[in-house]
Amino acid sequence: DFVMTQTPLSLSVTPGQPASISCKSGQSLLHSDGKTYLYWYLQKPGQPPQLLIYEVSKRFSGVPDRFSGSGSGTDFTLKISRVEAEDVGVYYCMQSTHLPPITFGQGTRLEIK
Amino acid sequence: QVQLQESGPGLVKPSGTLSLTCSVSGGSVDSYYWSWIREPAGEGLEWIGRIYSSGSTNYNPSLESRVTMSVDTSKNQVSLNLTSATTADTAVYYCARGRKRSGDYFDYWGQGALVTVSS
Q: Are the Cβ atoms of A37 and B102 closer than 8 angstroms?
């Protein structure tokens, strides 16, 4: 199966400080079409998830540039350059290279110190 | 602005069928993929499956034997049926709009519907 493993599972960050979340897949997420279908979502409290990053490193419309994604193959990272209070919630990575199924990481809970 | 709204019974008896409808407004179901995703309390997200506007489907192999999805383009709705429900199916169920056949991702989500499986 296409297991996605996120670390850490929780983060406590002082506003203005950076944060980083790792996502590792059991198999390469490089698709036969040459693209890598790795996405990042943020689920704010009481809300559905919202798309932050698509295809590893492309910011979705309206996403602040303090969010960035990187990686290739099986190892991926989401970075927040300067955490703000509105960034609290649970971050999920998701792969759709090998659908079905589409699979999510376990989630990383970010809180503000 | 596209909006999705899940609706259906909030309580299902064990061994019964969980049925939900996703109503789409501000846009058409045509030419998009429509996924169902669930979130058990305190757990992560699980993709249940998706249906294209033509009616073709992809299901999560872990649920495939119990899942049926359908689309009604005249009503701009998609539906989910999950048979033989157990307490493990208790979750918030989301519908979400998908953009691509390969490398699908979700740009719009409903607010979610809580379904509890209990006698």
A: yes
